[in-house]
Amino acid sequence: MNQVKTLRIWDFLGMGLSLVCLIHCLAIPFLMAFLPFLASSLMHHEDFHIALIAVVLPVAGLALVPGYLRTGRRGALRWGIVGLLLLGGGILSGHEIGELFETLFTVSGALCLFRAHWLNHSRPRQTCTCPH
Question: How many domains in the chain?
Fold first, then answer.
């Protein structure tokens, strides 16, 4: 498999993980309303959050850094860094900042990461970043 296909696979995986995070964060209020016994166990399940960030960090690194090194475009890398900071801040701060802010941080972070992977994937790859 060539390098471009490998980078695209990492970007698709990153977009998928961002969607999983969004679904998890946004589904909790609905679960609380309709299935409170299930929602409370999912909401306080910190292992899920730690597992998610443990997978998101390497996927973002394996997609965004090589994409930047290959193309020299900073946009995707910037969106990715902001997304990781927001997502990590929301997850690691836990309930200390309040439920609403935790959700806002993690949803914003997931959206930023999705955008980063989308930009990284959708732009044509260059084989050389040197000026011609």
Answer: 1
The string of pLDDT tens digits covering residues 92-130 is 776 677 777 888 888 899 999 999 988 887 755 555 455
CB 121 within 8 A of CB 12: yes
**Of 9, 27, 19, 48, residue with least CA distance to 114:** 19
Q: Is the pLDDT of residue 13 over 80?
A: yes
Give the pLDDT score at 17.
85
> Could you tell me the two tokens for 68?
């930047």
Q: Are the C-beta atoms of 18 and 117 separated by less than 8 Å?
A: yes
Q: How many CB atoms lie within 10 A of CB 95?
A: 11
Residue pair 123/71 in contact by the 8 Å Cβ criterion: yes
Contact by Cβ (8 Å): 86, 108? yes
* Residue 40 maps to a domain: yes
Cα 118 to Cα 11, 14, 31, 128, distances in angstroms: 7, 9, 29, 21
Give the amino acid at 76: A
Question: By the 8 A CB rule, do 119 and 83 touch?
Answer: no
Q: Is residue 132 part of a domain?
A: no
Domain containing residue 75: 3-122
